[in-house]
Design a protein that fits this description.
single chain, alpha+beta, five-stranded antiparallel beta sheet
Length: 1228
């Protein structure tokens, strides 16, 4: 294909002055009406912002004058099923008919292109009319530049009704034109969905949506330019994800208060951020290949590869435009894995008006849309006159390709899966030939993809399916037995009866169920779904094949004389391949013969010679072919098949490879959604997990798409005993629709047909369960079709989220002394309610929107409720099983409580004890002061009024991680305590990600040693990086946002405050000064490979660190930390010394493995410790709980001389603040 850089000088595109700068994010965005629309409709064009800030950062956008004259051609590609001449004849015939019948002669109100929502989103209808539809086309402009158009069809809302399911209208198309040929499909698809949602919001709320879309696109364009500027100035690599966060997309620019909650995020591909290759072959290689493998299978994929390498003319046919586009780009991506350019004519989807391109004599790859109307190209009539062709029908699975005009297809297009006697095999592959290796590896990739695509659940979840199958088998056996008995009776009576009843009995109950169609109709949630892990494996397989074949330049290049340019040596190459087992007569030999005679081989050789001459470094996101070949040449590794297989996999699995984060995102989000929609009990706080999921889904290029995919699959699986999967999926879908990004609205409309099917759900084994599913589906359906209500509810949800994240400060100060230990009223109720009592149900809401099982508004008021559920989203972890009432005294009768406690004959369980003591604590708080309660008033002994409630009775901390009383006792006696699994792994991973974000934002500094004026950098004692954290630190909020895992409710700070409260009793028991939360010190510690911290103590006399009472270490390392391999243990010294081993003492210590979630607490001034050398990156949170400042501290510090004056001043200010705080409390 002639690229823009190969165009004649007079037709060079304007951006070739700097050919290696990255392209702009887009050159034009169009909103096109259907060419046959019955009503006049305008075309909207949005160009990039006009400014001069992009000079030397990105290539200049294409001229608007050039693109405007191409609008008509672009419209043809946007509607590939439309044909101008056929439609003109149809309009002429219709006009003549209306004239003859006396109807309106002109401007008929509607035509066949005006459709209802139920027609276009209908799974069982003609596939050519199905929405949603997304495809990509390739078009050469008049100046020779090639652009790629990402197209999304949508059905606009009728303005008169503002309901999406009322009225007929014609389909429109949103188109993004870009010069990027690969790697951005996820991004552009998400942008188009966001644009569609903004258009629908404008139509529903009567706003100026065009201006909002323009602002949105321009802001996104500028953010891409900023990222390119950062990469070009070496301020950031390509391995980390580049996320654009767009604020106020839905609320509008005039509502700045919603900036923290109204956002949508886009992940920019790494290949969009740095210098590009002029040939653009590497860009084609970044397209996805799994849609091609799913449509063609392994055998036909290898036949397609053979046809393309042999430079044959290839036609792909299908009834689905999205499939044609995906398979076409997958085919050129397959070629790009070997740095082979696409055919000279590459048209993924051919409009009917350009059917003459099929007569092109040169090699091509063209997609032709099938159909029965005159709008479509009739291949049967054209094929006989076209010459040699290879036709692949993508809709017929398993059929061989059609070879037209070829006398011997086994030679012209060799079958790489066919073995012959000439196939000797490669000795380095244990006698297996190169095609055999390719076929075997691709088969494994397809198996992996199927395993992940069908989302097979855990063994526990399959039990329900097994039970359903057993039930069906038992029913069939009974029916057969009854039929046998009836047949025997009829034979004895000599009667013959109709057997329709028996046949109907044998038919399964759900044979006519439509649930199996849920999620269908959207190609990109079926065969076109992006499975990143399988995609990586496919790239590894094809890269291994091509590197084995063409990676070693020495096998096909020969230098005729020293200092001369090498030339291609075909004979040398064939001899090398013969020695590798590709003998004459084998399929691989025939393929190589075709390849060496083609222009494709010449282009490949010229490109490799150009690389040798330029000697440019290989980009870190280059195709695996280039990275692996460069790795072998740089390390002087032989190009042997086994070595190549290992090298390719090693390069591909490098965690620092750009774009590698997509695999972890893909796997992580699927695991989380599967857990939330499982029939098994959810392990954790389901409501909080759902809130986190919704927050993560604001990243709409990958996470949202993966989530929606699993929700459709769960709805499809929700039959029989698995009905709860469907209900949970609908509830999560509703939450995304109300609280997720605005593109979730487009996702809901895409699934309109599936949601409508779920409205008639009847596949559960119990009718009331089916009613729950139908109720959930009905509300999602109503929100989808009534967009004004949906967007009004979304704005209300935005305001609620804003109030949660940024509540208005109250003018009244909350008195915390009186309600110590009880932070929320629901905990008061748990403490005070009599055992077995239940709260009376609230009356039904007057509106149809009540509270659903997730705590959100939903119309489940009239739906029957199941009796009991497990601890999942349905029950939110509350046990509703009735308990046998347990006799308790009046909790406010202190005398009775005292008698109950002192009675030796009455056994009090732990639950009752917590209720009694929490109640007595609350009762004492309601008196003037607990220290002045008299025995006659309280009913308790006078000495007990001064005792504080023990830690295990603190009701408020029961909802968060905490240490037990046993751990506190160990800390008191030994001076240290180790608490494994203090934090769940999920929160450990979030905190580690928080560290990585802060390191990326340059918030970390090299760690120093010493105190105060002796603080200095000494790498012989400490190699680490630290970042101080705490509440109200704007420098951290700018990097991670104001809803990080540290700041949110029940987050890190709340957990550590609760831990501090747990140590209060210990200080009181040991007659120590109480801890002051306001003086708590917290920091993140990052130890690189080779990092350490030699022996030391945390509290040093005569320094500010003397306030440190307890030190805490919370390890945040990855799951799977191997102490022997990764090292980095904490060594706690028990020899009684200080910063050094006492003279003459024997070393005595214990080592603590830094496993993720482990908590270590110790007394700061008593326990010397050190961090041993680490062999891997080591993450931890370090903190110190400090006691309150006293006047004696200032006096002690003053003995240090003039150098300590700063410390004296700081402690004096702290003491003054503490004194002022006490005075203000007393004054109230």
């Amino acid at each position: 294909m002639m690229q823009a850089d190969d165009a004649p000088p007079s037709q060079q595109p304007p951006n070739n002055t700097n050919p290696l700068l990255p392209y702009p994010l887009f050159d034009l965005v169009l909103d096109l009406p259907h060419a046959a629309a019955s009503r006049p409709a305008s075309t909207t064009l949005t160009y990039p912002p006009s400014n001069n800030d992009t000079a030397n950062i990105i290539s200049q956008p294409l001229p608007s004058q050039l693109l405007e004259i191409e609008t008509a051609k672009i419209a043809r590609f946007a509607f590939p099923s439309y044909e101008d001449r056929s439609n003109a004849a149809e309009v002429s015939n219709r006009t003549a008919f209306l004239q003859r019948t006396g109807g309106p002669a002109v401007d008929p109100p509607y035509n066949r292109h005006d459709l209802y929502l139920d027609q276009v989103y209908n799974i069982s209808s003609d596939s050519s009319a199905i929405l949603p539809s997304h495809h990509v086309f390739s078009h050469r402009l008049s100046n020779g530049c090639i652009v790629h158009g990402h197209v999304r069809h949508y059905l606009p809302t009728v303005e008169e009704t503002q309901r999406s399911n009322v009225g007929r209208r014609s389909v429109r198309a949103l188109v993004i034109l870009t010069r990027y040929s690969g790697g951005g499909d996820r991004l552009y698809r998400s942008i188009l969905k966001t644009c569609e949602a903004l258009i629908r919001k404008e139509r529903s709320l009567s706003e100026k949506g065009e201006e909002e879309i323009k602002l949105f696109l321009h802001e996104l364009f500028r953010e891409h330019v900023n990222f390119c500027r950062d990469v070009s100035s070496n301020q950031g690599g390509l391995s980390k994800p580049r996320i654009v966060s767009m604020s106020l997309i839905e609320a509008g620019r005039g509502h700045g208060l919603f900036g923290t909650v109204d956002c949508i995020k886009f992940a920019i591909p790494p290949s969009f951020l740095h210098e590009r290759e002029p040939e653009d072959v590497s860009s084609y290689s970044r397209n996805d290949m799994m849609p091609m493998l799913r449509s063609l299978g392994v055998t036909r994929t290898l036949r397609l590869l053979s046809a393309l390498i042999s430079e044959k003319r290839v036609i792909l046919t299908s009834e689905t435009v999205a499939k044609l586009s995906a398979v076409g780009y997958g085919a050129v991506s397959m070629m790009g894995q070997g740095m082979l350019p696409p055919p000279s004519v590459f048209v993924p989807v051919l409009p009917p008006g350009l059917a003459s391109l099929l007569s092109t004599p040169s090699a091509y790859l063209i997609g032709v849309l099938k159909g029965s109307t005159p709008n479509f190209i009739d291949l049967r009539s054209m094929v006989p006159s076209l010459g040699e062709l290879v036709i692949f029908d993508l809709d017929s699975i398993g059929n061989e390709p059609f070879f037209v005009g070829m006398t011997n297809p086994t030679v012209t297009v060799p079958d790489l899966t066919r073995r012959s006697f000439e196939d000797v095999g490669d000795a380095s592959l244990n006698g297996m030939s190169l095609p055999d290796m390719l076929y075997q590896d691709l088969s494994e990739v397809v198996k992996l993809d199927k395993k992940q695509m069908f989302w097979q659940g855990a063994v526990q979840e399959k039990l329900g399916m097994a039970a359903e199958k057993g039930k069906t088998a038992a029913r069939n056996a009974i029916n057969k037995g009854l039929k046998y008995l009836k047949d025997k009776k009829r034979s004895m009576d000599g009667k013959e009866e109709d057997e329709e009843e028996e046949e109907a009995a044998e038919k399964p109950d759900n044979a006519n169920s439509l649930t199996k169609l849920v999620g269908k109709g959207n190609y990109f949630y079926e065969q076109g779904f992006l499975n990143e892990s399988a995609e990586v494996e496919a790239r590894i397989v094809f890269a291994t094949f091509f590197v084995c074949l063409l990676g070693d330049l020495r096998v096909f290049l020969t230098q005729t004389a020293p200092g001369t340019t090498p030339v291609a040596d075909r004979d040398k190459f064939m001899k090398f391949r013969a020695n590798s087992g590709d003998l004459p007569g084998s399929s691989m030999y025939n393929l190589l013969q075709n390849f060496l005679r083609s222009n494709l081989f010449n282009q490949f050789v010229d490109a490799r010679l150009k690389e040798l001459q330029l000697r440019r470094p290989v980009p870190e996101d280059a195709p695996l072919f280039s990275l692996t070949a460069n790795y072998h040449r740089s390390n002087k590794i032989d190009f042997v098949a086994n070595n190549i297989r290992q090298s390719v996999r090693q390069v591909a699995t490098n965690p620092n490879l750009p774009g590698k984060y997509l695999t972890s995102w893909n796997e992580g989000i699927r695991r989380r959604v599967l857990d939330l929609t499982s029939t098994q009990a959810f392990n954790g706080d389901a409501r909080r997990a759902l809130a986190l999921l919704t927050e993560d889904c604001h990243e709409s290029t990958s996470i949202l798409i993966d989530t929606i995919m699993i929700l459709w699959t769960r709805m499809q699986e929700g039959k029989g005993m698995q009905w709860k999967k469907a209900l949970l999926a609908l509830q999560i879908f509703r939450d995304l629709l109300l609280n997720g990004p605005i593109s979730a609205v487009a996702e809901a409309i895409d699934g309109f047909a599936s949601i409508r099917i779920m409205k008639s759900y009847a596949d559960a084994m119990r009718g009331q369960n089916s009613a729950l599913v139908r109720a959930a589906a009905s509300e999602v359906y109503n929100l989808t079709v009534n967009l004004p209500v949906l967007f009004a509810m979304r704005r209300e949800a935005l305001n609620k989220q804003r109030m949660i994240k940024d509540p208005k400060p109250s003018p009244l100060r909350k008195e915390t002394r009186m309600i110590k230990g009880i932070s929320q009223f629901r905990n008061v109720h748990i403490a005070l309610r009599p055992a077995g009592a239940a709260v009376a149900p609230a009356p039904p809401a007057p509106t149809p929107l009540g509270n659903d099982l997730l705590g959100n508004e939903a119309p489940f008021n009239n739906a029957p409720q199941p009796a009991n559920y497990s601890s999942d989203l349905l029950s939110m972890g509350l046990d509703t099983t009735p308990q046998e009432p347990q006799q308790m005294p009046n909790p406010f009768d202190m005398a009775a409580v005292t008698t109950l406690i002192s009675s030796s004959n009455l056994r009090i369980d732990c639950k009752m004890r917590k209720q009694i003591f929490a109640t007595s604590t609350l009762w004492c708080s309601f008196t003037a002061a607990s220290a002045f309660v008299t025995p006659s008033t309280s009913g308790l002994h006078a000495t007990s009024t001064h005792r504080k409630p023990t830690h295990q009775l603190n009701v408020a901390t029961q909802l968060m991680p905490q240490i037990s009383q046993k751990d506190i006792d160990v800390l008191s006696t030994k001076g240290f305590v180790i608490v494994p699994d203090f934090l769940p792994q999920e929160m450990v991973d979030e905190l580690r990600d928080d560290i990585l974000k802060l390191r990326t934002g340059s918030a970390f500094r090299e760690a120093k040693i010493g105190q105060d004026n002796t603080n200095n950098l000494n790498k012989s004692i400490r190699i680490a990086e630290t970042c101080f954290i705490g509440r109200n630190r704007p420098e951290l909020t700018r990097i991670t946002g104001d809803n990080s895992v540290r700041d949110r409710s029940s987050g890190l700070y709340d957990i550590l405050d609760g831990l501090c409260d747990s140590l209060v009793d210990l200080c009181w028991k040991e007659s120590e000064a109480k801890l002051d939360k306001s003086l708590t010190e917290l920091l993140y510690a990052y130890y690189p490979t080779g990092g350490f911290y030699r022996r030391h103590r945390d509290a040093i006399p005569n320094s500010a660190s003397v306030l440190r009472k307890y030190s805490l270490l919370l390890y945040l390392n990855r799951d799977g930390w191997d102490p022997e391999r990764d090292a980095g243990q904490l060594r706690i010294h028990l020899d009684g010394g200080g910063d050094e081993l006492p003279e003459g003492a024997t070393p005595n210590y214990i080592d603590v493995d830094p496993l993720g979630g482990t908590l270590v607490l110790f007394k700061s001034e008593l326990v010397p410790h050190e961090v041993l050398d680490t062999n891997s990156e080591r993450f931890a949170l370090v903190g110190w709980y400090n006691r309150a400042v006293t006047a004696s501290d200032i006096g002690n510090l003053g003995d240090g001389g003039a150098g300590d004056m700063v410390r004296v001043g700081m402690l004096g200010v702290a003491l003054a603040l503490v004194t002022f705080g006490v005075a203000s409390i007393i004054g109230q």
